[in-house]
Amino acid sequence: MPALTDLSTIRSLCDRYGFSLSKGFGQNFIINPGVCPRIAESAGIGPDWGVLEIGPGIGVLTEQLAKRAAKVVSVEIDRRLFPLLDETLAGYGNVKIVEGDVLKVDLRALIRQEFAGRPVAVCANLPYYITSPILMRLLEERLPVENITVMVQREAAQRLCAPPGTRQAGAISYAVAYYASPRQLFTVQPGSFYPAPKVTSAVIRLDVRKTPAGDLDPAAERALFAVIRAAFSQRRKTAANGISAGLAADKAAVLAAMADAGLDARLRPEQLTLEQFTALQAALAARGIPARK
Ligand code: SAM
For 144, how many CA atoms within 13 A lie in the half-sphere containing its CB? Predict the structure, then answer.
């Protein structure tokens, strides 16, 4: 099989199968031959590992993963790609393509069935239109995976890896820091893709914590992230304003909870650390916020 990064190979595959790329599914395929081996290496995959890939496209990253892992399972939403993948991955007996929307597939069951007993990594050049929902799903469900190595837009990479309590942090930075230890690895220019996207991309790796930072019970965890999302709902305002608006809570009660947690009422959401949000959530709960329905 000629190199899958070769533009004439891609065009001829698409022509032969009558395939046209879908913008709606975020289809930008990697054509820089250096990128996929680098992503696959960065995932730290051992020969006995299982890899869950999201969106194989025509299989350019899948191939690099299959060379390094015991087994690769790739979830692809666009079934028009299946005949192309049959051809491009014919030489790899350790790859299984699963049809489905990664936001809906039962990933826990899939991992159990396909990778029983193996260390598992998630690796992908993500469809950018659903970067946050995919990562939130992978983290919140506490799937049994060692790490998540993915290509995303550079701005998303910066936000996802920003330490809580710093200017670039957003609500999602707190979730990432809670469940994982994140790192930005390298950037990838638009010309490395076909078709070229408008933005620069970056590869990040999230090493999933065995025990989340804070280790709250599921209800407290949901409440913590509801408070964080509310605080960031009005980014230019104070955390108290956001929480009061986002949780439909009395402003005076929110300010009292801030004081209980030892926090200055003027703090903006991105100035709070994860520990401070955790203390604030406990203080809010003690005052009945959010109100039970
Ligand atoms: N891995 C290939 C590469 O690097 O060249 C393709 C990456 S492309 C950016 C994203 C892939 O995700 C496409 O194959 C697209 O069809 C697939 N995709 C988009 N939405 C998806 C979803 N909800 N579930 C599973 N796959 C999806």
Answer: 14
The model's pTM is: 0.94
Task: Determine the longest span between alpha carbons in the chain, in angstroms.
Answer: 67
CA nearest neighbour of 32 among 65, 7, 63? 7
Convert the pLDDT of each residue in 36-86 to its tens digit: 999 999 999 999 999 999 999 999 999 999 999 999 999 999 999 999 999
25 lines ligand 1 (CB under 6 A): yes
β-bridge mates for residue 121, sequence order:
51, 147
Token pair of 285, please?
């709960």
What's the CA gap between 287 and 256, in Å, rounded?
9
Give the Å distance between the CA of 47 and the centre of ligand 1.
25
Nearest Cα residue to atom 22 of ligand 1: 101
Find, among 198, 203, 151, 205, the residue nearest to 183 by Cα: 205
